[in-house]
Design brief:
GO terms for molecular function: uracil DNA N-glycosylase activity. By secondary structure, the chain is of the alpha/beta class. The chain has one domain: Uracil-DNA glycosylase-like domain (Uracil-DNA Glycosylase, subunit E, 3-Layer(aba) Sandwich). The protein is about 35% helix and about 10% strand. The radius of gyration is 17 Å and the shape is globular.
Length: about 240
């Protein structure tokens, strides 16, 4: 009997919106099945894995490859139950916004002269073509980074490379060292790459604030004849 993550993978493969991503080697060569099996082993051993199985592939389901206009990379899901729902940085918890997300939204508010959102749910961005994908799609409750070496990173590398190869014009917003390393996978002749420090308050260089990635991405998309992203969220 397969575990919940393997079942979620099977369901993702049946989803019509997933078709463009399913051509990636990760889903063709057994990698996805092996990673899902590793996570299922953790669950079978009593581990509390986040986000819920049905949300693990949300980033790919909401943003098909042929709809991607912006890419934002995160690290791994929030390790507190109820917070993560499968989109990088997005938050559905009941407490104060996580520090990095608060920094991101404050920059958006300042950059676009928009109200500071009260909600941290970034689903609206994903539905407009913003791929919000974490380097690891799962984590264990209370154990940040626990699944970073499970093999999810191969999926992210392949997704970034595929977007670069197949899409005509995409803005890659790469924040922090791990994300910035993936700039090497992007064809800068076709795409816009905006690099900055990580929005975490632990970033001592504080080189995220004032970089205006949202307006810069939108200006570039308009230059390319594409609809800009409406970054505003419910205030």
């Amino acid at each position: 009997m397969t575990g919940p993550i393997s079942q979620a993978l099977a369901e993702f493969r049946r989803n019509r919106q997933a078709a463009s991503w399913l051509a990636l080697p990760f889903f063709q060569d057994g990698s996805a099945d092996r990673v899902a099996a590793k996570v299922d082993t953790v669950i079978a051993g009593g581990g509390h894995v986040l986000p819920p199985p049905e949300a693990v592939f949300t980033s790919l389901r909401l943003t098909p490859l042929d709809k991607v206009k912006v890419v934002i990379l995160g690290q791994d899901p929030y390790p507190t139950p109820g917070d993560s729902h499968g989109l990088a940085f997005s938050y559905r918890g009941a407490r104060r916004l996580p520090a990095s997300l608060r920094t991101i939204l404050a920059e958006m508010s300042s950059d676009l002269d928009a109200p500071m959102p009260a909600s941290g749910d970034l689903t609206k961005w994903a539905k407009q073509g913003v791929l919000l994908i974490n380097t690891a799609l799962t984590v264990e409750a209370g154990k940040s980074g626990a699944h970073m070496r499970f093999g999810w990173s191969d999926l992210v590398d392949q997704a970034v490379a595929a977007v670069s190869a197949r899409q005509p014009a995409v803005a890659f917003l790469l924040w922090g060292a791990p994300a910035r390393k993936r700039a090497a996978l992007v064809d800068r002749g076709k795409h816009l790459v905006i690099e900055a420090g990580h929005p975490s308050p632990l970033n001592r260089l504080n080189d995220f604030k004032g970089t205006r990635p949202f307006s810069r991405a939108n200006d570039w998309l308009v230059e390319k004849g594409l609809e800009p992203i409406d970054w505003r969220l419910a205030s």
